[in-house]
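Journal club side-thread
Mid-discussion, someone asked how the predicted structure for our own chain would compare to the paper's figures. Pasting it here so we can look after the session.
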Amino acid sequence: MSMANSDPQSTRKSQPWLLAAGWVLFALGVVGIFLPVMPTTVFWIGAVWCWSRSAPHLTQRILSHPRFGQPVHLFVSHGMMTRSGKWLAIGGIVAGYLLLHLLGHPVWPVSLLLGLTLALIAAWLWRRPEPAVEPIPQTSGLSISDRPETSFQPSKDHRAD
């Protein structure tokens, strides 16, 4: 998944909806920082995708975030997730599904369809390749590009898709 663009100026002018979509996804991610049932990283991955095609300078701001930058970079650049990231994502899926049943009481066909869809998403997430080593915690002044590339190598028991 390359985020490089051959002509960023023409993309910025021809696709302003990507800039707007990036801001919406970024805002949803910010909400996720404060609400435990709302993800942050997933929305910021979407924002990075949109902004890499419309506003690359905004992409770098997310990638340099001390807590969420490295998981976003790991997924966008390599399609990888850490084991702890997988557990958190799948835990969030389960919590959201349970919360729906506690508060929403959906009819059984909707519940079944949603449950199957979420199970497929969880299975896909679990099959994402993992880095050989857990990512290095970011310290002040360290950027994504300064980190050793060895922390982004797939483990032997997973294959890259």
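Post-session note: DSSP finds seven helices and no strands in the chain.
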